[in-house]
Design a protein that fits this description.
alpha+beta; 6-stranded antiparallel beta sheet; 6-stranded mixed beta sheet; 23% strand; globular
Length: 427
């Protein structure tokens, strides 16, 4: 009798589910019919003629952009542009952008691009393009207008916190991104990653090899600068993190379904061979930058310094749609090795250092021993080196480093660690 009751309940449950599925299917068809009715009404009665292609594209884009700021539709042209950009060369202004409250928000300007040289900053809102309001545009439409032939100009209206809106004229250029740059600050190796394109991991290895070849055993520490790095390819973030870790989880992604979860783990081998590291981040460090900073922070491999990062903790998948372009769809969230989601929270640096400008004090009136009457000369004093008006690349890098307060603090921290460890070994 009990088995009959159980079988009866099971049959009722299955029938209920079938009825519910049929009702949901019926509701879906009703909604699709509504879409078809609206589509036909627009085609027939809108004030001007609109192509079916434009209407369908706008409908798809509207569906995707209503989900979150990072999902969107890429028509065939935008899809090709995106593929070119990922490879490290594209035309435009050189900014990574997203959408916020109907305006285009600057995530970060890319180093040595027209936008960077024009002074655009992370967090700026672009409200007008050539005096045309952005409100009502999709992100792709706004990006399309910002692109154009190299040498052509565009005027952006910027709204920045605490300031009146102002205009900036920028000349477009072909943007060729060297994703990794490096230089040496005395005995410290400095690595700057501007974006996580296809050349990022190989660039890190190449530049670090150059630093090691020049300094050898005198290399005392490494600074990894991810400030204003808007992110990019997940696999590059994983590879760069792996390059400085010997073991353990780097990042995990979790999607809608439990079996969609993925974990990425480090393999043995540390490019920096255990030397102390500092990772610099700020509000323009997003996505892949946050993966690297979070992994090295959670494994205590590096000290993270600077200000709180952007807080983009979602993963977008590019899904090709045949010859009709592709959709960029948010499919997962990512988590640091300790299980932290940084979505809308960002990575908090272990040592907070705000951006600041270093200005030397005027001490020209201060007297030294050499200024005193009858002061003895130093018999070991070297002859002054001949002066040159031309600044070498190394001198330029050193001068810029001295003016970068956050970088100066990072160098001081590494030197302090080296001194402390050396003293501990000698005791």
């Amino acid at each position: 009798m009990r088995n009959k009751i159980v079988a009866g309940l099971t049959g009722f449950a299955l029938m209920t589910m079938a009825v519910q599925a049929a009702a949901e299917s019926s509701e879906t068809y009703r909604q699709l019919n509504l879409f078809g009715d609206v589509f036909e009404r627009v085609r027939a009665e809108y004030v001007r003629e609109v192509t079916d292609e434009d209407l369908i594209e706008a409908a798809i884009n509207g569906m995707l952009t209503s989900l979150d700021p990072h999902s969107s539709y890429l028509n065939a042209k935008n899809y090709r542009d995106m593929q070119v950009q990922t490879k490290g060369e594209f035309g435009g202004l050189g900014i990574e952008v997203t959408m916020e409250n109907g305006y285009v928000k600057v995530v970060s300007p890319i180093d040595d691009t027209p936008a960077y040289r024009a002074g655009l900053k992370s967090g700026d809102l672009i409200t007008h393009l050539n005096e045309k309001p952005i409100l009502g545009m999709t992100l792709n439409e706004a990006v399309e207008q910002m692109r154009g032939p190299a040498g052509s100009d565009i005027k952006l209206t910027i709204r920045r916190n605490g300031e009146e809106p102002f205009d900036v004229s920028i000349t477009r250029a072909v943007i060729r991104i060297q994703s990794v740059r490096s230089h040496i600050i005395e005995d410290i190796g400095y690595l700057r990653v501007t974006t996580f394109n296809e050349q990022a991991d190989s660039g890190i290895k190449k530049e670090l090899k150059k630093i090691k070849a020049e300094l050898g055993d005198n290399l005392k520490g490494v600074i990894l600068d991810l400030r204003n790095n808007p992110g990019g390819l997940l696999d590059q973030a994983v590879s760069i993190s792996d390059g400085f870790l010997n073991h353990g989880e780097i990042v995990s992604t979790r999607g809608r379904h439990p079996d969609d979860a993925q974990r990425y783990n480090a393999k043995p081998g540390d490019l920096a061979e255990g030397l102390p590291m500092v990772v610099l981040i700020n509000g323009g460090s997003a996505s892949a930058s946050e993966i690297v900073a979070g992994a090295l922070q959670d494994h205590h491999r590096a000290i993270v310094m600077g200000t709180r990062s952007f807080g983009k903790g979602s993963v977008q998948t590019i899904i090709p749609m045949g010859n009709m372009g592709a959709i960029r769809l948010t499919t997962a969230r990512y988590y640091t090795p300790s299980g932290r989601s940084i979505q809308a929270k960002g990575i908090e640096p272990g040592i907070v250092v705000e951006e600041a400008r270093i200005e030397p004090l005027d001490v020209s009136g201060r007297r030294r021993e050499a200024d005193l009457p009858g002061a003895l000369e130093n018999e070991h004093a070297a002859s002054p080196a001949p002066s040159s008006d031309e600044e070498t690349p190394e001198e330029k890098a050193a001068r810029e480093a001295e003016a970068d307060y956050q970088l100066v603090r990072a160098v001081d921290l590494l030197r302090g660690i080296v001194l402390f460890e050396g003293r501990a070994k000698n005791q």
